[in-house]
Amino acid sequence: MPFSPELTGLDLAAVEAAVRRAAADEIMPRFRQLAAEDIVEKNGPHDLVTVADRRAEEHLTAALTALLPGSRVVGEEAVHADPSVLDALHGDAPVWIVDPVDGTRQFVHGDPGFATLVALAHRGEVLASWTYAPALGLMAIARRGAGARLNGVALRAGSPSPDAVLDVATSHYDFTDDDQKRVLAALETGGIAPRPCGSAGLEYLHIARGELDATAFSWENAWDHAAGLLLVHEAGGASGTVAGQPFRIEGGNALPFTAARDAETARRILGLLAAAN
């Protein structure tokens, strides 16, 4: 029988509990307690991984697949070790997309602005997501077609005030090449106030809360975006790529792409980016 969220009997509260438990057991005991040997550079001085990332992903991999037998996991650290793990995004099995510590740089520096991101997807469609910022006490949950909630309260992104200067979080300059910087510089114009992003997952939460107007991101790792994009959409927001297409979690997107509080804001950001692309 094909996978369907109605057929699995998946206990969404149990997923939330698993996310909270992984953070409580593997992440928070190490927050502001990391030793030098607990931190490793992956692809450069700005791309870090810690023992907390690895242990939390292992914890979540075991817990989530137990909750949904037959499911697969695409986790950031597993993909770093073996890129073929990404192939699960193209398969027929349901897939958990996991970023154990989104905002590792913040975590390493003792900044509470990091999150654990989990999304459940099937055949390219994100069905549910969990965005948990344990140091901030925030748990945002979205279900496709059923809305988004933060700590149990419904989220609505709303729309920017007419003629307001748009606050936009963009790919951080430490993680962009010269061409990406050139395209993103198109947002340095009247009526827009761009700034470098922090944790991508928390930037999506800021949009869903109506605290940030849009993002402009030039990378497409599924674990950074799957949870947040569903969260924004279920809070009434919009997203799209410079090619005018929906963002695909499987990859192969025209970049940059945006998520925004409403469709008009998304069109405005994409228009500027496409003209510079």
TrEMBL record:
Coiled coil: none
Record key words, sorted: Hydrolase, Magnesium, Metal-binding
Superkingdom of source: Bacteria
PROSITE patterns: IMP_1 (PS00629), IMP_2 (PS00630)
InterPro entries per record: Inositol_monoP_metal-BS, Inositol_monophosphatase-like, Inositol_monophosphatase_CS
Catalytic activity: a myo-inositol phosphate + H2O = myo-inositol + phosphate
EC number(s) stated in the UniProt entry for this protein: 3.1.3.25
SUPFAM superfamilies, alphabetized: Carbohydrate phosphatase
Gene3D superfamilies attached to this UniProt entry: 3.40.190.80, Fructose-1,6-Bisphosphatase, subunit A, domain 1
Pfam family, one: Inositol_P
UniProt-recorded name of the protein: inositol-phosphate phosphatase
Higher taxonomy: Bacteria, Bacillati, Actinomycetota, Actinomycetes, Kitasatosporales
